[in-house]
């Protein structure tokens, strides 16, 4: 299989490297030439546009930042759909609104192309080690076609259901993580009120029933949200708002999770 990869950021670059190292014929495209430099020692090809990349690919993986970027590289004037052959597949690894995937899938279908959503979780180190969580939404046959590529950087690769279900699952995961940040930070702050050392408290809780990934991130940052606010605050805010919008459109009861997530966003804003 010939694979094209677009989006060579901190997570996308090690994903692409795993594909290349697995022996797949791979073509890369990036807006910034510097993003391609780490691949100088590999057989990966370079393309001058997403359309040229797509013309030499059976599967195109897209791992860019947001909805607007996905729309541009997939459906722009020199986008993937301008070059991908009939029967080709586009996998959207970005975390975006499910409606974006549905809208682009409709456009892809008119070109004889299939689009699936496959957002990832775990970050660059997990990608480099081949242990990203890959959440896939799409028709089962298409998912089977892509799985051998996804498994070069993903473990587990989970088929969540129809198109858009991968995005919904990733967004729900991110909302829970955001909510857990507030409860973890609040617990450490309460411990300070009792003169309990926050580092020692975090170490104890990491081995107890109160442990969470969010607690570990806060403890590693010295017990505050400062680092998370600077590194991921904007992305967390985007994902929480997406879930709120989806819940509102579906008239779904959100329970306490969005309240806790909003509390985290308020804390992050206060830290800025």
UniProtKB/TrEMBL annotation:
Record's keyword terms, sorted: NAD, Oxidoreductase
Keyword NADP part of the UniProt annotation: no
SUPFAM superfamilies: 6-phosphogluconate dehydrogenase C-terminal domain-like, NAD(P)-binding Rossmann-fold domains
Domain of life: Bacteria
InterPro entries given in the database record: 3-OH-isobutyrate_DH-rel_CS (IPR002204), 6-PGluconate_DH-like_C_sf (IPR008927), 6PGD_dom2 (IPR013328), 6PGDH_NADP-bd (IPR006115), HIBADH-like_NADP-bd (IPR029154), HIBADH-related (IPR015815), NAD(P)-bd_dom_sf (IPR036291)
All copies of domain 3-hydroxyisobutyrate dehydrogenase-like NAD-binding, residue ranges: 164-256
Transmembrane segments: none
6-phosphogluconate dehydrogenase NADP-binding domain residues: 2-161
PANTHER family linked to this entry: 3-HYDROXYISOBUTYRATE DEHYDROGENASE-LIKE 1, MITOCHONDRIAL-RELATED
Family (UniProt): Belongs to the HIBADH-related family.
Protein name in UniProt: NAD(P)-dependent oxidoreductase
Organism whose genome encodes this protein: Streptomyces mirabilis
Organism classification: Bacteria, Bacillati, Actinomycetota, Actinomycetes, Kitasatosporales
């Amino acid at each position: 299989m010939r694979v094209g990869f677009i989006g060579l950021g901190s997570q996308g670059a090690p994903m692409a490297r795993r594909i290349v190292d697995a022996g797949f014929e791979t073509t890369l495209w990036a807006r910034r030439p510097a993003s391609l430099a780490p691949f100088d020692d590999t057989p990966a090809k370079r393309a001058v546009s997403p359309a040229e990349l797509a013309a030499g690919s059976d599967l195109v993986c897209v791992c860019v930042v947001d909805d607007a970027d996905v729309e541009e590289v997939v459906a722009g004037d020199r986008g993937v759909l301008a070059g991908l052959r009939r029967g080709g597949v586009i996998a959207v690894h970005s975390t975006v609104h499910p409606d974006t995937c549905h809208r682009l899938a409709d456009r892809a279908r008119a070109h004889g192309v299939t689009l699936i959503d496959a957002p990832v979780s775990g970050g660059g180190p997990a990608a480099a080690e081949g242990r990203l969580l890959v959440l896939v939404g799409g028709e089962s046959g298409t998912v089977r076609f892509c799985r051998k590529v996804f498994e070069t950087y993903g473990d587990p690769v989970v088929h969540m259901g129809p198109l858009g279900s991968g995005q919904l699952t990733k967004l729900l995961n991110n909302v829970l993580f955001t909510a857990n940040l507030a409860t973890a930070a609040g617990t450490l702050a309460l411990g300070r009120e009792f003169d309990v050392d926050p580092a020692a408290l975090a170490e104890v809780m990491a081995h107890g029933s109160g442990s969470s990934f969010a607690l570990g991130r806060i403890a590693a940052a010295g017990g505050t949200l400062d680092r998370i606010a600077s590194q991921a605050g904007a992305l967390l805010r985007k994902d929480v708002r997406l879930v709120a919008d989806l819940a509102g459109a579906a008239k779904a009861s959100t329970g306490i999770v969005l309240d806790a997530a909003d509390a985290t966003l308020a804390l992050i804003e206060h830290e800025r």
